[in-house]
Every structure is written in C-alpha cells, then in structure tokens.
Amino acid sequence: MVAVPREEDKQETRRPPLSQYDMTYHDIAALPDFITCYEIWEGELVMNPAPSINHQEISAKLMLAFGAHDPERSRGRYFHAPIDVVLREDITVQPDIVYVSRKRDDIIKGQHILGAPDLCIEILSPRTVDDDLNRKRRYYRENGVREYWIVNPFAHTVT
C-alpha cells in the first residue's frame, strides 16, 4: 500500500533566496518565532532596531484611544507592531499601528495581514525617520493603503 501524504504534511517548495536582497514574506516567515523585527523592502531583508521607551508610550496611548473609541471593535481591528503586513510578495512591513476595517477583515490571515490595511501609522524615531517619510510612504501609497499617519514625537504632530 502506498502512503498518500496528508495535505498538512505537504511542504511548500521554494528555492532559497539568492541573497538578502532576494527575499519574500515566505523567507522571513520561516525564521524562528523569536525573530520579529524584520521587514522585506523590495526583496531586501531589513532589520529594525527596537523602539525607544517614548515610542512605545506613544504607541500604547494611541492603542488605548482607539480602543476607547470603538471598545467592541465593531468598526474594525487595530494591531500594534510587530505584525507583518504583506503588501506584495517582495514587500513586508511592520507599521507601528495597523487598522483593518470590519468589512475588509478577510485580509487578516493568521500570523499576518495579506494586502493593504485601511490605516498604517508610523511613529518617527531618529533611526527610521527617512524610511518612514520616504520609502514606506511610497510603499503604502503604491499598494493601496487608504490612510498613512506619521506621528512626529519631536514636533508633537500627526500628519
């Protein structure tokens, strides 16, 4: 008798990346669970530094405000980093805060969000300001994110 592999036993076969500049979400999803601060920018593996205490406090205050505004989550769901947002195969980002409306919650897929959320929020830090204002802004715009908020803790502004 020939054993037929069960669906859950089948492994997806994908060639290994040629370099750190040829990666997709599938490559970082295969990393150990304790590695959570990676993004893929047009195939390039990028490691983000841990956020500052001030950054974390701002993120927590925003999440509390959103929760107070919609405590039953009837309008949608908010997530805070780290959460993988797969905008396309070669672009996976981890916005500081992500919102997905209830009518679009089909893009929430287990461990990640597959597609453009309704809202992405980045809290600027000295080490990421250029990427947040330029590269990530372009990624969000080109891939259909409806709103992108930039929280500037230095100028005390939200754009």
Structure description:
This protein has helices spanning 25-29, 53-69, 129-142, and strands at residues 38-41, 44-47, 76-80, 84-88, 91-93, 97-101, 108-109, 112-114, 119-123, 147-152, 157-158. It has a 6-stranded mixed beta sheet with strand order 2-1-5-4-8-7, covered by helices on one side. The N and C termini lie far apart (65 Å). β9, α3 (129-142) and β10 (147-152) form a beta-alpha-beta unit. It has 159 residues and is α+β, with helices and mostly antiparallel strands. It is built from 3 helices and 11 strands. The longest helix is centred in the middle third of the chain and has 17 residues, at 53-69.
In short:
The protein has 159 residues and is an alpha+beta fold.
Properties at a glance:
disordered N terminus; five-stranded mixed sheet; alpha+beta; globular; 159 residues
Biggest sheet architecture:
6 strands, mixed
How far apart, in Å, are the first and last alpha carbons?
65 Å
| Total beta strands | 11
For the CA atoms, what is the radius of gyration? 17 Å
Which segments are poorly predicted (pLDDT under 50) over 5 or more consecutive residues? 1-18
Task: Indicate the overall shape.
Answer: globular
Strand order in the largest sheet: 2-1-5-4-8-7
In N-to-C order, the SSE pattern is HEEHEEEEEEEHEE
Mean pLDDT: 84
Share of helical residues: 10-25%
What share of residues are in beta strands?
A: 25-35%
Individual helix count: 3
Structural class: alpha+beta
